[in-house]
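Hello,

Our lab assistant flagged a job as stuck in the queue for most of the afternoon. It eventually completed. Since we weren't sure the result was trustworthy after the delay, we are filing this so someone can double-check. Below is the sequence as submitted and the structure that was eventually returned. Let us know if re-running is recommended.
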Amino acid sequence: MTVIYNREDKIFRGIVTGGALTSLVVLGLIGLFLFLRGAQVFNDKGISFITGVNWTAGTGDGAILDDFSIGAMLVGTIVVSLIALVFAFPLAIGGALYLEFYAPTRVKKPLVTLLDLAASIPSLIFGLWGIEIFTRFGERWAILLSKWLGWIPIFNVQFENFGRSPFIAGCVLASLIVPITTSVAREVYSRTPRDLVDTCYALGGTKWGAIRSVVVPYGKSGVIGGAMLGLGRALGETVAVYLLLNLVFRYNFRILESE
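-- returned structure --
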């Protein structure tokens, strides 16, 4: 079958194709610029720029100090983001399933609205909330985890200083990414073909059985995409984490202990 495009279709196709190609070219130029500018750093410092923990950029005694690396910040970002994802992912899945399959309509609509509003709250608000309110509760949880799971290296602490720990920062960051992850998961689950769910009921399945055997497998790829979207926001957050963690350039794999 041959598709015949009229003049308007060809013009529109040319416009959207040109826009797409322009976006790709701009992204490519940005990547090339970053590569060329970043290559100089690797030429000067080598792999130690990524693995090192030094940070003495600035001036001193009339000399320019530029002994700096990103290893500690890179590891800290990954650790805090993974903690956030561990807490946020189960909450998001549970919340999405409740809203889509269990919540009555009069409850679902306001909750969905609140969820969408929460996804747009600035990270600064979450950071201030974490400092002023959540930290005192998070410290209690950290003490309990240290008491019962202290034999695991990441939960072991040398000094009982829990206030500005990666655990606290990860929990606050989890509350920040839960709304967007839940919204994506709920949207994915809502697109499950109704015929598949009804077939499960017709075969004697329960609602939980339909969710477990039909809904969750059907939406697995979309939910993973939502989790990656939440992880991407967690990795990119600066303000909230900056307010909650001490600025220390050291590797810290004890997630309950503040440096």
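-- support follow-up --
The delay was a queue issue, not a problem with the job. The result is valid. The mean pLDDT is 85. The longest strand covers residues 58-60.
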